[in-house]
């Protein structure tokens, strides 16, 4: 019988051993075959795969969207379900879909809870940053219009990217995810998924401020969550909201509220210039997954399936509208939607940290100082990390190790 009182670092060590083992030959992505694998994009310390989709005849200066899949999913299956590459054709942007490897995480979850993967210029976060730099250079994309979104573990990794590289991203959308810093290590991660700590907004914001020593302006962020999510507790949406309202100095501000069919409630917080900086979408009765209005008609995209949920609301369209990308192909740049004060400059730190030529990134221009905000089940779920009742930490760790395939089932 194996000792149930395993140290949390055991999981990290075992994952690292797998990561630095045989990476395997290049694989073909699963799905509809629209994606292309890109090799040699950087040092890739996180050991991730890079898959991309670039529409034919995409002009120089087009935007870039980064989409991060959930656990047990492939990049191509996530694209097919959510419709991102279809939208890339329609609205004219390049698409980057990083993909996890089983050598890193047996359930294909991005390691949003592992310290070595969620720090700036380290692990999986740096691998994704290198992919972004490669896409900008190779396709002449607009460095001031780079956006990131993801589901569940991919949503939590979206929080990681927005926190560790806020100058790179103009905006993000976190779908059924968690705030940055929600859990370090397996036990804390599971606890946060079951029900996150109710922390002051200043504490949530401080986690992001220290991740990149950044002082703003900040990416615009939309948060999406189903009210009936039993994999990632809906309170994570509230904690993520606290994080970004604090960073944007919008604590205590009254939101604009909009309700539509299907129990879809949207709140948006605007800056002094009238631009929406933070938005929150809650879907009544929706479980864990991406909200879809599946099909090929107006306002529709994607294919309903596991964790791709037909609820009559196309989150893909809504996210694009929030970012101002639904008008790109028609030539209307929607300047008011873009983060104010951003300018593409050479990021000298990219050359130093990444060992590559500097690239143009969206480096914020410091705005006028703002007033300081007041502080204030099921086993493995495709699209989510294993969900267990959190009572005895030793048992939690053991179950997580077993679910991750890193130790045998205790039969004695």
- Level of helix content? 25-40%
Rg? 20 Å
Which stretches are low in confidence, meaning pLDDT under 50 for 5 or more residues running? 1-27, 329-412
The first-to-last residue Cα distance is 6 Å
- Main sheet: strands, sense, barrel: 10 strands, mixed
Into which percentage range does the β-strand content fall?
Answer: 15-25%
Give the beta-strand count: 14
Report mean pLDDT, rounded to a whole number: 79
Structural class: alpha/beta
> Which strand order does the major sheet show?
1-2-4-3-5-6-7-10-9-8
> What overall geometry do the principal axes of the alpha carbons give?
globular
- Written as H for each helix and E for each strand, in order along the chain, the element string is HEEEHHEHEHEHHEHEEEEEHEHEH
Tally of helical runs: 11
Task: Give an account of the 3D structure.
With 412 residues, this protein is an alpha/beta fold. Helix content is 28%, strand content 18%. The chain has helices spanning 9-19, 75-82, 84-91, 123-139, 153-164, 186-194, 201-212, 235-247, 315-323, 348-354, 393-403; strands at residues 36-38, 49-53, 64-68, 94-99, 146-151, 171-175, 220-226, 256-260, 264-270, 276-283, 290-292, 308-310, 342-346, 360-364. Helix 5 links the parallel strand 5 and strand 6 (171-175). Helix 7 packs across helix 8 (235-247). The longest helix is centred in the first third of the chain and has 17 residues, at 123-139. The protein is globular.
């Amino acid at each position: 019988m194996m000792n149930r009182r395993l140290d949390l670092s055991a999981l990290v060590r075992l994952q690292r051993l797998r990561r630095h083992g045989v990476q395997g030959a290049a694989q073909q992505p699963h799905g509809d075959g629209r994606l292309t694998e890109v090799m040699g994009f950087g040092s890739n310390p996180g050991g991730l795969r890079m898959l991309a989709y670039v529409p034919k005849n995409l002009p120089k200066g087009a935007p870039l969207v980064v989409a991060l899949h959930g656990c047990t999913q492939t990049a191509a299956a996530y694209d097919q379900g959510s419709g991102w590459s279809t939208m890339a054709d329609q609205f004219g942007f390049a698409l980057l879909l990083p993909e996890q490897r089983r050598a890193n995480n047996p359930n294909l979850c991005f390691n949003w809870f592992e310290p070595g993967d969620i720090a700036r210029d380290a692990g999986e976060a740096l691998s994704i940053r290198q992919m972004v730099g490669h896409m900008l250079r190779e396709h002449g994309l607009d460095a001031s219009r780079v956006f990131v979104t993801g589901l569940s573990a991919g949503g939590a990794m979206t929080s990681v990217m927005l926190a560790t590289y806020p100058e790179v991203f103009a905006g993000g959308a976190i779908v059924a995810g968690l705030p940055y810093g929600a859990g370090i290590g397996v036990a804390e991660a599971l606890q946060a998924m079951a029900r996150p700590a109710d922390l002051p907004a200043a504490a949530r914001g401080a986690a992001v401020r220290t991740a990149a020593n950044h002082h703003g302006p900040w990416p615009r962020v939309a948060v999406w969550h189903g009210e009936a999510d039993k994999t990632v507790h809906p309170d994570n949406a509230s904690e993520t909201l606290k994080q970004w309202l604090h960073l944007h100095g919008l604590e205590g501000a009254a939101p604009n509220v909009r309700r539509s069919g299907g129990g879809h409630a949207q709140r948006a917080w605007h800056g002094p210039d009238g631009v929406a900086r933070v938005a929150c979408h809650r879907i009544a009765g929706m479980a864990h997954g991406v909200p879809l209005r599946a099909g090929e008609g107006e306002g529709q995209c994607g294919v309903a399936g596991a964790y791709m949920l037909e609820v009559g609301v196309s989150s893909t369209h809504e996210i694009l509208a929030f970012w101002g990308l639904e008008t790109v192909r028609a030539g209307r740049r929607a300047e008011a939607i873009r983060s104010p004060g951003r300018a593409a400059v050479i990021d000298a730190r990219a050359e130093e940290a990444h060992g590559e030529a500097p690239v143009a990134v969206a480096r914020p221009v410091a705005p006028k100082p703002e007033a300081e905000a007041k502080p204030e089940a099921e086993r493995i779920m495709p699209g989510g990390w294993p969900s267990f009742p959190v009572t005895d930490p030793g048992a939690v760790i053991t179950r997580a190790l077993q679910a991750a395939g890193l130790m045998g089932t205790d039969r004695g």
